């Protein structure tokens, strides 16, 4: 990607930038945690931002939990959070129907995270869970092709993550959506979940696209990269988009969300988007609203020192603020990716070849300089 980094001229530049930020919006999975594993120093980072007077919000595309259930998870993982700071797609889906005076039933492809949020605003939904799947097509057709199998009171289809998704559910959703007055809502369109290098865990987007294709309808999408989550927060908080930072691990949802809403953006590499993908992008593929010389991300299971450039670099630890890196005189086609976690204050001399006792510092930092083509 051309002109990827934006450099900070001196160690005070990042602090100066934060002085112009009133609120930080975090994606959750892949940024603050992966599954039930907290990424190192994530709770401390959130706490530090609060101590600096910043508002903090948690913008998750995950529809499998209610906001109350997310709050329990935040507390169990030792994050400071309040219910009002959590913006989930299941909550937004229920709110969308409520504010449109919806008085029918919803057919939900999803989990109790969605149906509980609907129940909280007095909206009825059909039972969820696995459908009974026939072993042959003749039996399936006999069970499903009778129109009386569809509930005439259904007026909305909500598609979220559902590991019980089946052809039977696709049939029902598309059939309900044949009525042009039936509301079509997707919680999010994430293609996959964070996983290992050898596996792909299909996300809600794969289910949504199946329903879209069958129904020939476009849904109202509650989650990032669409504006609905930001517009919801701005109802209750006087936020200037030019003074909000979005932190995420997925470029085509989190970072694009920030761009769509006019926010500053910070991509971390602890989740979905990889450095290799960044290298392969061209300027026309993706646009970072805020091009940075670094991406702060959290401790990885394996440390990997790769020095691929002779460019002069200065790494700075600043104890009064979030750790950051300063890139000195680096051309625009060089991106610096920094992993900063538990550390003690020390200095690394400018110039890549001037590190003292490289192995001594392996515990404290990981860095790599990559040419971005």
TrEMBL record:
It comes from Allacma fusca. The keyword Hydrolase applies. Keywords: Hydrolase. The lineage of its organism: Eukaryota, Metazoa, Ecdysozoa, Arthropoda, Hexapoda. It holds the Pfam family Hydrolase_like. This is Phosphoglycolate phosphatase. GO terms for molecular function: phosphatase activity. GO terms for cellular component: cytoplasm.
């Amino acid at each position: 990607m051309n002109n990827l980094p934006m450099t900070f001229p001196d160690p005070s530049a990042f602090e100066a930038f934060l002085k112009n930020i009133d609120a930080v919006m975090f994606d959750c999975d892949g940024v603050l945690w992966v599954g039930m594993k907290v990424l190192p120093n994530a709770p401390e980072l959130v706490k530090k931002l609060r101590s600096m007077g910043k508002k903090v919000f948690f913008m998750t595309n995950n529809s499998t939990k209610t906001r109350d259930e997310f709050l329990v998870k935040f507390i169990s993982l030792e994050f400071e959070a309040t219910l009002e700071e959590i913006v989930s797609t299941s909550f937004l889906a229920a709110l969308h129907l409520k504010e449109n005076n919806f008085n029918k039933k919803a057919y939900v492809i999803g989990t109790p995270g969605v149906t509980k949020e609907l129940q909280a605003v007095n909206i009825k939904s059909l039972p969820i869970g696995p459908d009974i799947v026939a072993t042959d097509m003749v039996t399936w057709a006999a069970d499903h092709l009778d129109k009386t199998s569809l509930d005439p009171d259904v007026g909305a289809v909500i598609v979220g993550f559902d590991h019980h998704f089946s052809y039977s559910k696709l049939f029902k959703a598309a059939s309900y959506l044949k009525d042009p007055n039936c509301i079509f809502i997707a919680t999010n369109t994430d293609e996959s979940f964070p996983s290992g290098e050898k596996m792909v865990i299909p996300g809600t987007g794969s289910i949504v696209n199946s329903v879209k294709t069958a129904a020939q309808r476009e849904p109202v999408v509650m989650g990032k990269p669409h504006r609905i989550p930001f517009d919801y927060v701005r109802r209750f908080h006087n936020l200037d988009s030019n003074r909000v930072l979005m932190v995420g691990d997925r470029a085509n949802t989190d970072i694009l969300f920030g761009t769509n809403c006019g926010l500053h953006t910070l991509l971390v590499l602890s989740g979905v988007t990889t450095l290799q993908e960044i290298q392969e992008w061209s300027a026309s593929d993706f646009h970072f609203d805020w091009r940075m010389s670094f991406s702060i991300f959290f401790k990885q299971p394996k440390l990997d020192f790769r020095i691929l450039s002779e460019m002069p670099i200065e790494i700075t630890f600043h104890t009064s603020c979030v750790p950051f890196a300063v890139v000195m005189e680096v051309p625009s086609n060089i991106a610096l990716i920094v992993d900063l976690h538990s550390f003690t204050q020390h200095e690394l001399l400018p110039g890549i070849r001037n590190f003292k006792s490289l192995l001594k510092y392996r515990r404290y930092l990981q860095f790599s300089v990559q040419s971005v083509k």
